[in-house]
């Protein structure tokens, strides 16, 4: 079983009032769980109560690209800065454990969690308007998308890309968007590495946790493909996939 964690990338002290002890703000990134006031956090084996939580940051303020894992957040703890700084003496980006006071999502309690392999290292769908269009031919599923030519300049002259899935057994397009992902509504929030990528999933993917009905085809493929798009999520069970591009005319 894995545990909720984050990366501590900064910490600073708040001046105390007469009735307060010295308090510290912890800046956390790469969250696998979004903490709440009342939760606790373990920093270098020292457990601290979380008093307040900042607004949850999901995108970089400079590039607007999605942040890693479930984003960034800052928390206020009732401990002096000196109790935190020793963690930075061991590594510049210490990993901290979050200790929630409410029940955790299923995958933190499961022994057989699925594994994710990213498939789109040098391409992606458009981050704002991917415009998915689906067509079926026998047991082949075709999904046309607008490419992300901002990040991947090789697609600057490409109007649309097509994902072809062969020997497709079933597929579905769920309503899960980026807000649902960062809000913990996806069954893989905090488990899949990042939002907005194309993965193959191996292992127990707990398909029953999403009520969206599948559309059955006549194929027999069993590989599970999973693509997080801007306003929806594509799930496909098929044998193989390939990427085609369509140049502007």
Word description of this protein:
The strands form three sheets. The protein has a six-stranded antiparallel β-barrel with strand order 1-2-5-4-3-6. It has a six-stranded antiparallel sheet with strand order 7-12-14-15-11-13, with no helix packed on it. The protein has two helices and 16 strands. It has 249 residues and is mainly beta. The protein folds into two domains: 5-99; 115-245, no CATH class. The mean pLDDT is 90. Helices cover 5% and strands 38% of the residues.
Taking strands numbered 1, 2, ... along the chain, how are they ordered across the largest sheet? 1-2-5-4-3-6
Q: Overall mean pLDDT score? A: 90
| Annotation field: number of helices | 2
- Low-pLDDT sequence parts: none
Please state the structural category.
mainly beta
Count the domains.
2
- The gyration radius over C-alpha positions equals 21 Å
Question: Which range does the strand content fall in?
Answer: 35-45%
Span of the ends, CA to CA: 52 Å
Number of strands: 16
Q: What's the story with the biggest beta sheet?
A: 6 strands, antiparallel, barrel
| Helicity range | under 10%
- Tell me the series of helices and strands, N- to C-terminal: EEEEEHEEEEEEHEEEEE
Categorize the overall geometry.
elongated
């Amino acid at each position: 079983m894995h545990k909720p964690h984050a990366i501590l990338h900064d910490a600073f002290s708040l001046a105390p009032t007469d009735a307060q002890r010295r308090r510290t703000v912890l800046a956390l990134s790469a969250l696998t769980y979004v903490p709440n006031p009342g939760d606790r956090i373990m920093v270098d084996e020292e457990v601290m109560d979380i008093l307040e939580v900042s607004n949850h940051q999901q995108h970089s303020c400079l590039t607007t690209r999605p942040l890693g894992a479930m984003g960034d957040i800052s928390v206020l703890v009732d401990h002096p800065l000196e109790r935190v700084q020793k963690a930075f003496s061991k590594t510049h980006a210490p990993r901290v454990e979050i200790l929630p006071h409410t029940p955790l999502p299923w995958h933190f309690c499961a022994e057989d969690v699925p594994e994710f392999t990213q498939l789109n290292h040098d391409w992606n769908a458009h981050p704002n308007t991917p415009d998915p269009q689906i067509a079926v031919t026998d047991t082949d599923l075709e999904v046309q998308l607008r490419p992300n030519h901002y990040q991947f300049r090789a697609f600057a002259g490409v109007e649309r890309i097509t994902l072809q899935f062969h020997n497709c057994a079933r597929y579905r397009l769920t309503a899960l968007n980026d807000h649902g992902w960062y809000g913990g509504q996806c069954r893989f929030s905090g488990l899949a590495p990042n939002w907005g990528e194309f993965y193959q999933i191996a292992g127990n993917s707990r398909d029953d946790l999403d009520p969206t009905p599948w559309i059955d085809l006549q194929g027999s493929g069993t590989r599970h493909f999973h693509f997080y798009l801007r306003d929806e999520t594509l799930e496909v069970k098929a044998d193989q996939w390939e990427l085609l591009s369509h140049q502007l005319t």
